[in-house]
Amino acid sequence: MIYLDNAATSYPKPAEVINAITEGITVYGANPGRSGHDMSLAAAQKVYDTREKLNDMFNGYGSLNVVFTYNCTYALNFAIKGVIEKGAHILTSSLEHNSVVRPLSQLKIQGICDFDIIECLGTDEEIVSAFSAAITPRTKLIVCTHASNVFGRVMPLEKLGELAEKRGLTFIVDAAQSAGVLEINMRKMHINCLCMPGHKGLYGSQGNGILLFDESIKNSLIQGGTGSRSFEIVQPQDLPDKLESGTLNVPGICSVFAGVGFIKNFGLDRIYEYEYSLMKEAWEDLSEMKNVILYSSDYRMFEFAPILAFNIKNLHSEQVAAELNRHQVAVRAGYHCAILAHKTYGTEQMGTVRLSPSVHTEKKDLNTAINYISKIAK
Amino acid sequence: MGKAAVKVGSVTYAAKGKDVLIKNGYKAHITRDPYPEKGEGCGYLICVEGDCKSIVALLKKNGVKVYGVSTNVIDCL
């Protein structure tokens, strides 16, 4: 199989990640933070070491301010609903995944807040200006993706962070497509809450999400057992326990630990440069096929995460993906849980086909996939 | 050199505290608090050799909430 669906989840996982998952069940098989025996303490130490590693990688606000969730969607819900207060106004981009838009819509339906969607088709400057112009006295929060999961467009995060900082707004970032691929520096970019999956660019296993945050999150979405202050019936306010109830996914956390190590060894810059070069070449090849539709006039470095969307004239994107699957090429088609992005780019009628590589994608395999696309497009 | 068993409220604080102490040249390890006060429980101890006041000050400076220092140091160490 030629796997080009890494934006959904990365595959294959590095050998050290697979070994770490086994270790998570064998060496660290106890419940961390619940007991005092050696294996429980060892598991707790491993979890803590993973917090440290993630905090270092993203220049966060301390290892206590790193929370493990089931996935990026949970992290986004924890952040958005933990930050927002009744009557607030929120701004978000028109490239958001449903993991942002649906929580916002739910809050609106419940009468808790309202939000505006900023169209993000223009230049970085135009996007930042549009956000700036939409800020009202009630605006408290900007929620924005780092990179579109459909079109790969990278948002001007640092400039949006500066805007949020300057106007006293909380800034929540969805790094689902960028964590482990593009550099993210929370403090430099003025990011208050950073949400990411552990199973995409970080190369961990599925069922992993991470939330890094400052002091912005006031409310906990889930309450329960934390292994701390058990004599009290109210949720502890100490971090990370305030936001992290129930038994943690230790094998998954071990996989993230190993995944982050893999990225560090390989080099974040090298990862992006390699994956970008693959997609740049694919963009160039596809742009020469007369029946192929692309959605950018160029494919410039750092303007795109390594994601490439396309369509073939007169074919639904799902038909193209099904045909590629018959040739053992794995891609994603349809709406990618991001209808706003499709409306922005005018692809809401047939969705798009998405190519997304990883460091494990070989150039020859990509070329094979491009040849199949060429045949389908004739 | 004195011995201290610093009480903290969670295993994460214990791990952070241990990390801070080791980075500052102390020998430290974590254990479950075997002698919780009445109404307490689920606490952890950071067991460390050194001046108690300095240790507690260092932990607090680094954001570790300290609930107290256990007198059962011998059992801890």
> Mind telling me which CATH architecture of the largest domain in chain A this is?
3-Layer(aba) Sandwich
**What are the secondary-structure elements of chain B, in order, as H or E?**
EHEEHEH
- What is the CATH architecture assignment of chain B? 2-Layer Sandwich
Q: How many whole angstroms does the radius of gyration of chain A measure?
A: 21 Å
How large is the share of residues in beta strands of chain B?
25-35%
Question: Would you tell me the overall average pLDDT of chain A?
Answer: 97
DSSP strand count of chain B: 4
Number of helices of chain B: 3
Specify which chain pair forms the largest interface. A-B, 26 and 22 residues
* Main β sheet profile of chain A: 7 strands, mixed
**Average pLDDT, all residues of chain B:** 87
Notable features of this structure?
heterodimer; A: 378 residues; alpha/beta; Aspartate Aminotransferase, domain 1; Aspartate Aminotransferase, domain 2; 7-stranded mixed β-sheet; 3-stranded antiparallel β-sheet; 11 helices; 39% helix; B: 77 residues; alpha+beta; Alpha-Beta Plaits; 4-stranded antiparallel β-sheet; 4 strands; 35% helix
Walk me through this protein's architecture.
The complex is a heterodimer of chains A (378) and B (77). Chain A has two domains: 120 residues, Aspartate Aminotransferase, domain 1, CATH 3.90.1150; 251 residues, Type I PLP-dependent aspartate aminotransferase-like (Major domain) (Aspartate Aminotransferase, domain 2, 3-Layer(aba) Sandwich). Chain A has a seven-stranded mixed β-sheet, with helices on both faces. The longest helix of chain A is centred in the first third of the chain and has 20 residues. Chain A has 378 residues and is α/β, with parallel strands linked by helices. With 77 residues, chain B is an alpha+beta fold. Chain B has one domain: Alpha-Beta Plaits (2-Layer Sandwich). Chain B contains three helices and four strands; from the N terminus they run βαββαβα. The interface between A and B is medium-sized, with 26 and 22 residues.
